[in-house]
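REQUEST
  id: r-88c1
  op: predict_structure
  target: Amidinotransferase
  payload:
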Amino acid sequence: MTSSCAGGRRARARRYLMCRPTYFDVRYAINPWMDPHRPVDTARACAQWEALRALYRDLGHTVELIEPLPGLPDMVYAANGGLVVGGRALGVLFRHPERRGEQAPYLRRLARLAPGGVYRPAFCNEGEGDFLPVGEMILAGTGFRSEPAAHAEAARVLGRPVHSLTLVDPRFYHLDTALCVLDDDLVAYLPAAFDDAARRRLATLFPDAIRVSEADAAVFGLNAVSDGRHVVLSAAAEGFAADLRTRGFEPIGVEFDELRRGGGGIKCATLEIRA
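RESPONSE
  id: r-88c1
  status: 200
  body:
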């Protein structure tokens, strides 16, 4: 399904994998956003997640589910569970031991969703947290989680050119917290989250990119999901939303702040299954 709008932007029906935050909690701190001393409202997290799933369905997208498992409080961040391109899936190898229990469940689920098969990685990568396809290429983050050797591995396994980008601000520890793919030839990003080489590469690859403010990035505004027309993003990222309207997109702001307590946002909760 495709649809157009007055600004010429086209939405394409997507297929997403999500995990209900039934067991969501902040029991440890593996990123600057996590504070185990602050109680988590799991019911509120579930309500925000359900609203996001309903929105995707209303927009015409398909939502697949993976069963949440006790003892894996970060399993809701499905984007970290793998990368699926051209029907082939690359599994994950988490840097922090607290999350390694998620690897096998996501690998099994992706084996049923990816007709081209699933590859078990040899090097540390954290799925769509650090791998973001843009058209025929893949942008790949490193610096905090995924290791550079995983970028070459992804290029070989998935048959796509991979462009490495080094992150330098620990608040933006995954690529999907510092950069958002809006369409096959357009991205938005926070320049200060990257080193000089990465900024030069992004400027060359995407000269028309939207540069987002630190204030909008700090409310996980870039941890957003675009179908080519609609951009689902943090309701607090008002400046980014205004920029999107100027470019012909339809931003849809949603509340997702409870799940942000774990260091993840809307994109973190959404793994795209690309045929």
